[in-house]
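Design job #97: recover the sequence.
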């Protein structure tokens, strides 16, 4: 019986540590910011006019093409190529403007409306682009094409939603690529800021590619003030809450940070977090199940060991 008591005591303290002490310590060490469920309600006022309109996708396409978006962004699904390669774009804008094919499904509609009219406000980087600084955000605001600007913006959003894949078809990788990949690398998945590094036949080609990445990183550093960190281990090392807070609103989490608010909707955010965990540990799910089996097995083994010990001692008495 003594052994069973000891076992019970050990199990008790293990559970206390696991359920009470660890979460408490975690809560003290990591700041908690309440998630607003990706509602972006600070943008309600600025987007009221747009959100009350019903958009027309056909007119939206004209506006997107003639209103300037495609001067900086490619839209691959509509056969609209980029006007320059990523490295050259970054030397002009600081970063390569993302392809807009899936922007209608990745980003929150209200956020898109605010972004089109006032990028610095939507991205929460107005503090970096004050009139005194003399700097303008590299994405120029859309000032309208002569009609009702709110209707025009609603039309553009309808167009983006009409060409995007459905939320079901949007993979974690696609969401990540759209919203994060232009600034962050993912070493474990072989992603550079220019995309997944292709395999080259010769060392020279491989090094030439690396040089392009370095050149791109230089522009990005100048734009952001620092090189955005590699994301392979971020979610695993610093936790899911921090990752979610950072995706939803970097400023509320780390005041003055150079990372803009990305404006993805809640579903895309979950996909991006999944992708960040998978990158750190592609075998995670498989290992989680194995872990459970190992625990059951250990418990079974402990019980057998106790029974066996009793058996041996009885014979010796
Ligand atoms: C002068 C070039 C330029 C024009 C014109 C432009 N953009 Fe952008 N856009 C950019 C740049 C640069 C970024 C990346 C900014 C950053 O990451 O800090 C960007 C980012 C974006 C993003 C991603 C925002 C996010 O939250 O990550 C979307 C969506 C977008 N633009 C849509 C549009 C639409 C729609 C139009 C037309 C109304 C447009 N852009 C016009 C340069 C431009
Ligand atoms: C326009 C560039 C840009 C984009 C787009 C961007 N980031 Fe960042 N990110 C940064 C910069 C710059 C930092 C460094 C911030 C700092 O240290 O102040 C950063 C930091 C981070 C961090 C580290 C925060 C920490 O714990 O210190 C995480 C996590 C992160 N980004 C996740 C993401 C995810 C996920 C996306 C896509 C949804 C994304 N970022 C999109 C520029 C960007």
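Job complete. Output follows.
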């Amino acid at each position: 019986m003594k052994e069973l008591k000891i076992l019970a005591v050990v199990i008790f303290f293990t559970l206390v540590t696991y359920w009470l002490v660890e979460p408490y310590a975690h809560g003290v060490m990591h700041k908690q910011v309440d998630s607003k469920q990706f509602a972006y309600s600070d943008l309600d006022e600025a987007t009221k006019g747009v959100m009350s309109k019903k958009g027309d996708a056909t007119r939206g396409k004209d506006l997107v093409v003639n209103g300037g978006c495609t001067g900086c962004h490619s839209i691959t699904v509509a056969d609209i190529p980029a006007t320059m390669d990523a490295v050259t774009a970054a030397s002009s804008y600081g970063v390569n403007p993302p392809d807009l094919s899936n922007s209608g499904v990745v980003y929150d509609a209200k956020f898109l409306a605010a972004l089109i009219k006032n990028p610095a406000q939507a991205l929460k980087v107005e503090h970096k682009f004050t009139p005194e600084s003399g700097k303008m955000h590299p994405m120029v605001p859309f000032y309208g094409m002569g009609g009702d600007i709110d209707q025009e913006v609603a039309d553009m959003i309808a167009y983006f939603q009409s060409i995007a894949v459905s939320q079901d078809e949007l993979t974690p990788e696609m969401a990540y690529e759209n919203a994060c990949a232009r600034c962050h690398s993912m070493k474990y998945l072989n992603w550079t800021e220019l995309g997944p590094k292709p395999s080259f036949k010769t060392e020279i080609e491989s090094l030439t590619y690396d040089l392009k990445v370095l050149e791109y990183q230089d522009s990005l550093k100048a734009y952001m003030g620092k090189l955005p960190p590699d994301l392979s281990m971020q979610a695993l090392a610093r936790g899911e809450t921090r990752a979610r807070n950072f995706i939803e609103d970097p400023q509320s989490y780390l005041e003055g940070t150079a990372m803009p608010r990305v404006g993805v909707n809640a579903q895309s955010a979950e996909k991006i977090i999944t992708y960040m965990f998978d990158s750190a540990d592609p075998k995670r799910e498989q290992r989680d199940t194995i872990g459970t089996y190992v625990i059951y097995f250990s418990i079974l083994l402990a019980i057998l060991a106790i029974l066996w010990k009793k058996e041996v001692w009885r014979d010796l008495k």
